[in-house]
Amino acid sequence: MKPDGEGSPMAKTEVRERIAEAAWRLFDEKGYENVSVDEIIAATGTSKGAFYHYFSAKDELLSALPDKFDNDYDAWAAQCPPDMPSADRIVALCRFVCKNMELKLSRQIITEIYSTQLVTRGPKFLTSESRRYVKLLNQYVHEGQERGEITGAIACTELSQMLDIQLRGLIYDWCLRDGAYSMEAMCDKLIGAFMRAMRPGE
């Protein structure tokens, strides 16, 4: 017997997303460590075979997080004004990343994600260069350097990595401080100041 949803690509995507959404909801309600695979299966009405068809273990559900936001980043990029200065576009993208996280994920879930990434022996998806927003950062930095809007003294990939590190550090600090400030507003100040320092001649 085929696992639930093992048919059309659309059906596979829907089942995988349904499992992930149910898991994140349970993690938020009960805490990551207090949720079992059996509870996730029961909440989705699928089977154990279906779960392990899409996820090798419970912690792999956390690594599926980028999939949840990739469409949002693509939609944001599509409506971004093409004549917006590259530095402003980078700040706006980072601000959107923070705003989207605050709106769609609880602080507890974000904390669980960062905690498990610190101790996992597997791939650390938080540092993956294949993440959609990281690719957008690379694109915008490259365009800014080509236009002479951003310094070329630092390689494009290195500058993009510096931005990614700052953004990840901001999210970590926000979790440590129990969400005491607006992540989006702090991002605007932090990344904005950094990009002003990245102007040619600064």
TrEMBL record:
<dbReference type="Pfam" id="PF00440">
    <property type="entry name" value="TetR_N"/>
</dbReference>
<dbReference type="GO" id="GO:0000976">
    <property type="term" value="F:transcription cis-regulatory region binding"/>
</dbReference>
<keyword id="KW-0238">DNA-binding</keyword>
<dbReference type="InterPro" id="IPR001647">
    <property type="entry name" value="HTH_TetR"/>
</dbReference>
<feature type="domain" description="HTH tetR-type">
    <location>
        <begin position="13"/>
        <end position="73"/>
    </location>
</feature>
<dbReference type="InterPro" id="IPR050109">
    <property type="entry name" value="HTH-type_TetR-like_transc_reg"/>
</dbReference>
<feature type="DNA-binding region" description="H-T-H motif">
    <location>
        <begin position="36"/>
        <end position="55"/>
    </location>
</feature>
<dbReference type="InterPro" id="IPR036271">
    <property type="entry name" value="Tet_transcr_reg_TetR-rel_C_sf"/>
</dbReference>
<dbReference type="GO" id="GO:0003700">
    <property type="term" value="F:DNA-binding transcription factor activity"/>
</dbReference>
<protein>
    <submittedName>
        <fullName>TetR/AcrR family transcriptional regulator</fullName>
    </submittedName>
</protein>
<dbReference type="InterPro" id="IPR009057">
    <property type="entry name" value="Homeodomain-like_sf"/>
</dbReference>
